[in-house]
Write a structure and sequence with these properties.
Elements: H1 2-11, H2 14-29, H3 38-62, H4 64-70, H5 83-102, H6 106-124, H7 132-151, H8 159-179, H9 181-186, H10 192-215, H11 217-221, H12 227-248, H13 254-278
Helix pairs in contact: 2-3, 2-7, 2-13, 3-5, 3-6, 3-7, 5-6, 6-7, 7-8, 8-10, 8-13, 10-12, 12-13
């Protein structure tokens, strides 16, 4: 029973779920005005984390065939849990997320509902459309910041961090597509690295990274965020981006691409820390 529960928990990809929770909480904190409800902030974080977990579950259910090639050790392809069990988990997570968002306000419920639909469409169809799937995931990550702002009735203050989140996740999604190119090719799934090749994809990733690095200077120059933001971004966030680009051009192996994807995930956490202390 313990192994089953552990596998169901693992299926949600806990680190991604935790990052989603933190994104929404930080999004809410940096948008706090004169009046806010701590309960609504917590509900926003939990509901966002649950819908993100649900999205990861249904993604693995739909991608079971490809994961047997790309990620054979995951709970479903390894046989630790069955597809019906995963569907039950998906339904439960989605239902609770929608109910919790309804207690925040109607806009929050709409955002969670839209996220639910987009996550399903992403897993079912959009991820197989070159770049469209990548843009969908990046958009939803940025939307998490907006969701945090909605929880405190001040979504406009979340626009800048939402843009940063969108950019770094778009970069990460393209690297993940490079990592999965072999399995996707065998299953007839067309992604940007397959359509344009690794060389051009790397150029796109580099261009996006350069744009993101340049964009991180704007909030400090315009005095939107304070010196703490600038220091953390310049000492940790941007150097990690440069490191990822350097290693991307040195090694095309799945192991290296997976490492770079995880570094970008960590880099987003440092980005959250920079925004939190620099607000």
């Amino acid at each position: 029973m313990f192994l089953k529960i552990k596998s169901l928990f693992s299926l949600t990809r806990p680190l991604n779920v935790l990052i989603t929770f933190l994104v929404v909480i930080v999004g809410a904190v940096i948008c706090i005005g004169q009046e806010y409800s701590l309960l609504k902030i917590i509900l926003a974080g939990i509901s966002a984390a649950l819908i993100a977990g649900a999205g990861n579950v249904i993604n693995d259910v739909i991608d079971l065939s490809s994961d047997k090639i790309n990620h054979p050790k995951r709970p479903l392809p390894s046989g630790k849990i069955t597809s019906p069990e995963a569907v039950i988990e998906y339904t439960l997570l989605t239902t609770v997320a929608l109910l919790l968002s309804a207690f925040i306000n109607i806009i929050a419920l709409v955002i969670v509902s839209v996220t639910w639909v987009l996550l399903f469409l992403y897993s079912y169809k959009l991820k197989r459309v070159p770049l469209v799937g990548n843009l969908t995931v990046a958009f939803l990550t940025g939307l998490a910041f907006i969701y945090g702002g909605v929880a405190v009735n001040n979504a406009q203050s979340a626009i800048i961090p939402a843009f940063f989140a969108f950019m770094i996740n778009l970069i990460r999604e393209l690297i993940k597509d490079m990592q999965d190119v072999e399995g996707d090719s065998q299953l007839g799934i067309k992604t940007l690295p397959q359509k344009m090749g690794f060389g051009r994809t790397k150029i796109i990733i580099t261009s996006l990274s350069a744009l993101l690095i340049a964009a991180t200077l704007i909030p400090f120059i315009n005095r939107i965020y304070q010196i703490e933001f600038f220091v953390i971004v310049m000492v940790i966030v941007n150097p990690l981006l440069v490191y990822v680009i350097k290693k991307l051009f040195e090694d095309d192996s799945q192991q290296n691409l997976n490492k770079l994807s995880n570094i970008l995930k960590l880099d987003m956490v440092f980005g959250l820390i920079a925004i939190f202390f620099g607000r």
